[in-house]
Amino acid sequence: MEGFTEIVEGRTKLLVPPLSLTEKVPPKTPAFFNPAAKLNRDLSVLAYRAYAPRLKERTLADGFTGVGARALRVAVEVPEIEQVYGNDANPSAIKAAKKAAELNGVSAKCRFSVNEVCKFLLNGNDREERFGIVDLDPFGTPARHVDCVLRAALDGGLVSITATDTAVLCGVYPEVCLRRYYGRPLNNGYGNETAVRLLTSLMALTASRLELAIKPVFAHATMHYLRVYAQVNVSSSEANDVYSNLGYIRHCFNCGHRLAAKEYENAKCELCQHSMKTAGLLWTAPLQDAPFVTKMAEGGDEKCRKILDAAAGEIDVPYYFKGDEISSKMHTNPHSVAKIVEKLQATGYKASRASMNTGGFKTDARIDHVLQALS
Ligand SMILES: [Zn+2]
């Protein structure tokens, strides 16, 4: 196909613009393809495979499919999914997706369409039915589409949502974050987890408005994007409980003390008396469903397994500490995360790696107690 070149990702042939493979920022014309998002797609193949047995209807909708990278990989690599629907506003991208479906021999189980994303999700394929899995991977914020994604999912289905407005969610533009996600971010060492929790909270609040409830099963974050996988249940009684999963995180930028809180409060730090910054409203309940994530890890490559193993073993604390943050406070050489976790556990605290930062760890110990335990 003119203007496109064939590559293989996972076990799937894709037709992509050649410049997308060489330019630092992949061009949007003739179609967008980001080779750096391979890990994101690898993890989604594992997630959908692990989730498929729970589905009443084994269908997937990919709202911003581009050249079909994720949709085609699911069609080829997740045989449990019977029908894949991909949609994009760019006709050139959809042409490449259809052609690639032929190359992979999966045309019969793929339907590609050109439509506005919410029109597609709600009835773009002339189907009134909802989808088993709904994926949304937009440029920038997913905030304006969250309603449609949730409304398009079947009871008991799965939604996966990516956000790439990481500067907003990680605290560079707090006012924009507040209006998009109804919560304040934190611009600090663990801001990416706060960001994931803000996105999850938006999903939960939106769901509750629609008499739905979400339960996150897996979430991950890199420098450039963050992503949440959540089960959707039709249940007004579960929707009533939405606030039991939401709260705030308070952080002291002076001494590094941090804690989760149920209520918003302009509090002073109990360790150093400085004013604390508050993040939220955000999701404070668990993000990782350990049995599900463990199931995902089966069949994953080393890169995926590293993330998934850390996610499965994570303790239930809605923030993390960084090893180098602790060593700079102690004026020592960096301790390894494994050593820190071991030492905290030996002292009687809960501790684990942090899945969203390879140099991070989680613990129920306060920062002064962490420093004591390690000195
Ligand atoms: Zn303090």
Secondary-structure map:
Layout: E1 5-9, E2 12-16, H1 19-22, H2 38-51, E3 59-62, H3 69-77, E4 83-88, H4 91-104, E5 110-114, H5 117-124, E6 131-136, H6 146-151, E7 153-163, H7 166-169, H8 174-181, H9 191-209, E8 212-221, E9 226-234, H10 236-240, E10 246-251, E11 258-261, E12 277-283, H11 290-297, H12 302-312, E13 321-322, H13 323-330, H14 337-347, E14 351-354, E15 357-363, H15 367-374
Parallel strand pairs: 3-4, 3-6, 4-5, 6-7
Antiparallel strand pairs: 1-2, 7-9, 8-9, 10-11, 10-12, 13-15, 14-15
The site of zinc ion (ZN) has 8 residues, from loops.
Q: What does the model show?
A:
The protein is of the alpha/beta class and 375 residues long. The chain has a domain at 5-246: Vaccinia Virus protein VP39 (Rossmann fold, 3-Layer(aba) Sandwich), CATH 3.40.50.150. The protein has 15 helices and 15 strands. A seven-stranded mixed β-sheet has the order 5-4-3-6-7-9-8, with helices on both faces. The longest helix has 19 residues, at 191-209. The chain is globular, with a radius of gyration of 21 Å. 49% of the residues are buried. The model has no long low-confidence stretch (mean pLDDT 96). Zinc ion binds at residues 252, 254-255, 257, 269, 271-272, 274.
